Predict the structure.
Amino acid sequence: MEIDTPFLDSTGNDASLLVRLPDALVARVFSFVEFGVLAQCAGSVCVSWRSALYGNALLWTRLALPKYAVLLPYLPHNCVRRVVIAAPQPVGAKRKDAADSCRLLNNYGQHRIEHIVLEGHGIDTAIMEFLARIITPHLVHIQFHHVGLSFERKQFLAVLQRAQNVRSLRITRRPFKRATILSPLLSLFSHTLTHLRLDNLAAEQIPNFGAIVPNLVSLELDGLMELAYWAETRFNSTSITDDLADINDLTGAGNHVESIHNPPNQPSNNSADNMTIHSSSFQIIPQLRYLSCTNMDESDPDAVSKLMCFLLSKCPLLTHLVFSCPNYMMDLWPCVEFWLNIQHVHLDHCFIASDFVRGLQAGIGQLRDHHLATYGVYPAHVLQIKIGRSCQVEDPDLVRYVFGNDCFL
């Protein structure tokens, strides 16, 4: 049997094996090493490895800049799909490096970028003219992390207008000020945006999502603050829960029982829709399935309950809720449509009293029985609750009995 003799390059390495392997297999192998090691292998092992690795477009779909900008001259055109551009300082070399990174991406033929992360206080309007060179209709995901941009600036909006197909927008760890205006930015993606995350947003600045981005499917709000101010200025002294149907008191709320059986894509007749002129002008978010409200301002529990009732009343198709608020005692939010349709609830950083568990069990049971009496069948889903490790639980055994042994994470 004839055995092939491996080709050894001048350093004694078997270079032919790497060249002969499929690109997908090579990319799979190198996915287990850090990116810095990959860059070192491509540049330092041998000429054959250099050619094989730099020529494999699958290895260079993600790039952190300006750290690895030196690699751009060697990469295949249009191979980079995701870039992280960091400028931690608002002035000086770091910001210049970020601007240069945008220029190099354009100069070396990276025109199909789909995911951009802009990170640091050095990302500002001065960089936008350079950013314009790499923003194309191929862009579908964009994230601003720790940036100090004013999102309503015309220069900023003019550049992002080039991205016509953005589906996912994330503005993370940015302390919003009261003057922050998000509507112009969201309006750019009014027909395409389906996933949105906003961090540290003052409750008063919550945009009218249903009117601006009606196709929103997933909404994450982390660190909502100034809830007490929002509740004080947007609602009268009467608690909003006074006029909402309690899931444990359906028999005394005939009009609310009717409302829970409205077609899910229709606005509810629930009085939550008419709490004030402000809230009634906040339109239904018709497609929203996933809502995450985490690390909420804990200073006013009543304001937390008001805001949650307000948001839940605007999401008729909601099936997944993630909620956390330190030291907040979980409340049976009086939103019949929510408790009827919700399928998955994940709770963390809050207090779960036994009264809440028993009340929820009784209320859900009553809703299911009412559905059976009306339609002849039980609802197709069963509520699944997951409780995070940071929750304080008054009676864990009761929780396991009601929600199952696997409810604790």
User: Anything to note?
Assistant: The radius of gyration is 27 Å. Confidence is low (pLDDT under 50) at residues 1-10, 237-244, 250-280. Residues 35 and 63 are 9 Å apart (CA to CA).
